[in-house]
Specification:
By secondary structure, this protein is mainly β. Helices cover 0% and strands 48% of the residues. Strands 2, 4, 5, 6, 9, 10 and 11 form a 7-stranded mixed sheet that branches. The protein has a 4-stranded antiparallel sheet with strand order 1-3-8-7, with no helix packed on it. Strand 4 and strand 5 form a beta hairpin. The protein starts with a strand and ends with a strand.
Amino acid sequence: QVQLVQSGGGLVQPGASLTVSCSASGSTLRGYAMGWFRQAPGKEREFVAASSRSGGNTYYRDSVKGRFAFSRDNVKNTVSLQMNSLKPEDTAVYYCAAGRRVITSELINPAAYDFWGQGTQVTVSS
C-alpha cells in the first residue's frame, strides 16, 4: 500500500511558476509508474505528465511540453512537477498517482493507476 501526500500549489498570475510535490510512504516508489493528472471544474481528469516504471522515460501532454518538468527521486520517495509560464487554462486540481503495473501505453490513462494523492489546487489568474 502506498500513501501519497501532496504539497504546493496555490494562486499565481499568468506567466508565473509553481511546483507541486508528492511524497510517498508505505513503499518505495522504485518500480512504480508515477503520473500527474489534473481536473478542472466540469471536466474529466486528464493526463499531464508521467514517468515510466523504470524512471527512464517521461511523457507530457502536448499543451505543457516545454513549460512543465517532471522529476522523481526514488531515494527520497518523492515526485514533483515544476510548472513554468503558467496559463489560466492550467487552472485545475492536480493529482499525483502511482501504479505498479502501468505499461507505457497506459501512462496517460488515470484508470491504470492504483494510488492517488489528495489533490492540490492550482489557480492561474490575474
